[in-house]
Amino acid sequence: MIIKNIGELVGIVPAGVDRKCGAEMSQVDTLRDAWLQVEDGRIADFGPMPDCPGGEAVDAEGGMLMPAFCDSHTHVVYAGSREGEFLDKIEGRSYEEIAARGGGILNSADLLHATSEEELYRQSLARVREMMAKGSGAIEIKSGYGLNPVDELKMLRVIRRIRESVPATVRATFLGAHAVGRGYTRDAYVQAVVDMLPQAAELADFVDVFCDEGFFSPADTDRILAAAAAHGLRPKIHANELAVSGGVQVGVKHRALSVDHLERTTEAEIEALRASDTIPVMLPGSSFFLGIPYGRARAFIEAGLSLALASDYNPGSSPSGDMRFVMALACIRMRLTPAQAFNAVTLNGACAMGVSGVTGSVTRGKRADLILTHPGWNLTKLPYTYQTPFIRQVFLGGNVFQNL
Ligand code: NIG
Ligand code: FE
User: Fold this and answer.
1) What digits encode the pLDDT tens for the residues 14-28?
2) Domains along the chain with CATH numbers
3) Residue 135: alpha-carbon gap to chain centroid
4) 315 CB under 6 A from ligand 1?
């Protein structure tokens, strides 16, 4: 299959480049008036229109072709919703107050417990399909609304089933330590999480801990991550959302693939990350929804770090998986350039879930996970006119994805 008359082919990256760091994040390589050939679900070749090979072709009619989004941090497997808390929030209660009243993550855990595995799959799959329709081609999904051995494994099985039934690339993260499960003391629950690791490791690619004020301490996190390493699980952790928590440092100590959130950081966190290959991931959708500070994205990039951006799609702090809106928030509220935001939601997002060797850029041999826009679009217009529909077709593994 050939896509011809592409107005601009955006996000071309040489093979072997797994991420963009610092000043490289301002660079987006493109080719105007181009074609791209897909073979066996992969990008076989691309070039300028005068050299376009013959054969069956989709006419892009001048639309932009770009890599599908890579959303490296989501909690889309959950049951029901938390609309009641949305009303509490409007009345002025903070995320911490809602959690302390037994709402928040524990509320989702109760709902998940009362929902059958089949129904949980059905509800979660609908969200994943919505995300694919909005252009996400690689999605990380966390457990963490089970909070006991039976329900955490139920969540991980649902993630596995989604992974096997969708054309997107899915990665699973065991977030047993998302909150202290009902009926446990914190110490007993940390031990329970450690005890869940052998079974969780059979279903998950990564381990996560919510290392933050009111949730798990750096010492708890250290203990869980040390035990997880013995089961081959690399960390991707929640840190510094609610306070300067020490989470970044403990993540770096355990060679975390990513440390995520980072709404509250100092120079010490930037220095710790500079001495590591851990990727910082920021989640502007939760800053927007909770009304908390945005991460200091520019400072991180200026320090030479690679930055990824993800949706954090979850029922409590970011009920949206729209990566184009994430890009818009990054530009409007974090003052990233469209090029920086683009690299953060594509290649660097792929890197933050260990899949940048197979997706996240226009590279020969990578999966043909692509967004074809309507004619007249360019990279700057995406976050600028941030609500105007722009997607003409989403290709996942070379096939047109249709959300029927
Ligand atoms: O990433 N911060 C912790 N976990 C989620 C929120 C989960 C929830 O409220 O359900 C987050 O924001
Ligand atoms: Fe999260």
Assistant:
1) 999 999 999 999 999
2) 2-67+361-400 (2.30.40.10), 70-351 (3.20.20.140)
3) 13
4) yes
Give residue-wise pLDDT tens across range 248-293.
Answer: 999 999 999 999 999 999 999 999 999 999 999 999 999 999 999 9
Atom 7 of ligand 1 has which residue's CA nearest to it? 316
Q: How far apart are CA 49 and CA 278, in angstroms?
A: 40
Under a CB-based contact definition with an 8 Å cutoff, are residues 77 and 126 in contact? no
> Which ligand has its closest atom nearest to the C-alpha of 317?
1
Query: For residues 82 and 103, what is the distance between their CA atoms, to the nearest angstrom?
Result: 9
Handedness of CA 238, 241, 242, 247 (dihedral sign): positive
Structure letter (DSSP) for residue 25: G
Residue 142's closest CA among 170, 101, 114? 170
Yes or no: say if 244 and 270 are a contact pair by the CB < 8 Å rule. no
From residue 100, alpha-carbon distances to 26, 97, 105, 318 in Å are 42, 5, 10, 19
Neighbours of 162 (CB within 10 A): 22
For a ligand 1 pocket test, name from 75, 89, 318 the mutation site with the most ligand atoms within 8 angstroms of its C-beta.
75
| Whole-number average pLDDT of the chain | 97
Q: How many CA atoms lie within 13 A of 265 on its CB side?
A: 27
Ligand 2: centre distance to CA 186 (Å): 20
How close is the Cα of 365 to the center of ligand 2, in Å? 31
Compute, in angstroms, the gap from residue 363 CA to the centroid of ligand 1: 34
